[in-house]
C-alpha cells in the first residue's frame, strides 16, 4: 500500500498554499498523512550548530516520515521567486541527514499566489531542489490569483477539473 505524506512549505497561519493543499487532499482516495511543519523547532542551519548540537530532533522525525512514505504532496509558497526561507531551512537540514533524502519518492507539487504568476518561479526552484536530493516531481499544479479562483466552494471549475485529474493520475502512478 502506498504511503503518502503532505505538507506546506509556509509558516503562515493563513497560508493560501495550505488552504490549497488541504482542498487538494479531499480528492485523494488513498490515505494521506498531513504534517504541519509550522510547530517544528528548527534553528537556522549553520555548520557550527550541526557540529555542536547535531541534527534537530524535529528534522530526524520528519526525515523518518519521509523515509516511510512512497510519495509526497507538497504545497510551496513563493518569496522573491523562490521557496520561503522557512522551507529552505527545512530542506537544508534534511539534506544534512542524507544527500538523497527524497530518493525514490514521487512528488506532486502545488503552488498558488495572489498574483498572476501562481508561484511558478517557486515551483521551478523547488522542482530543481527536490531533484537534487533524489526526488521525482511527477506532477505540478499552479493556481494564479488565489482570491479570484478559490472561494468557499473551493476552486473555480476550470482549475478544479485540472487538479482532480492530476491527483487521479498521481494516485494511479503509485
From TrEMBL:
InterPro entries the record matches: Flavoprotein-like_sf, FMN_Rdtase-like_dom, NAD(P)H-dep_reductase
Domain NADPH-dependent FMN reductase-like: 3-140
SUPFAM superfamilies: Flavoproteins
Protein name: NAD(P)H-dependent oxidoreductase
Species: Psychroflexus longus
Amino acid at each position: 500500500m502506498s504511503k503518502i505524506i503532505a505538507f506546506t512549505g509556509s509558516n503562515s497561519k493563513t497560508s493560501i498554499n495550505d488552504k490549497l493543499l488541504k482542498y487538494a487532499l479531499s480528492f485523494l482516495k488513498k490515505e494521506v498523512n498531513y504534517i504541519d511543519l509550522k510547530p517544528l523547532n528548527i534553528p537556522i542551519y549553520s555548520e557550527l550548530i550541526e557540529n555542536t548540537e547535531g541534527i534537530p530532533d524535529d528534522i530526524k522525525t520528519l526525515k523518518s516520515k519521509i523515509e516511510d512514505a512512497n510519495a509526497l504532496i507538497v504545497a510551496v509558497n513563493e518569496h522573491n521567486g523562490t521557496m520561503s526561507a522557512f522551507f529552505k531551512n527545512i530542506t537544508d537540514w534534511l539534506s544534512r541527514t542524507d544527500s538523497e533524502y527524497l530518493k525514490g519518492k514521487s512528488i506532486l507539487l502545488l503552488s498558488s499566489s495572489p498574483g498572476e504568476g501562481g508561484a511558478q518561479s517557486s515551483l521551478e526552484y523547488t522542482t530543481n531542489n527536490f531533484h537534487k536530493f533524489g526526488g521525482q516531481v511527477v506532477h505540478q499544479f499552479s493556481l494564479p490569483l488565489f482570491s479570484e479562483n478559490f472561494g468557499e466552494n473551493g476552486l473555480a471549475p476550470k482549475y478544479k477539473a485540472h487538479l482532480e485529474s492530476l491527483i487521479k493520475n498521481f494516485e494511479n502512478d503509485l
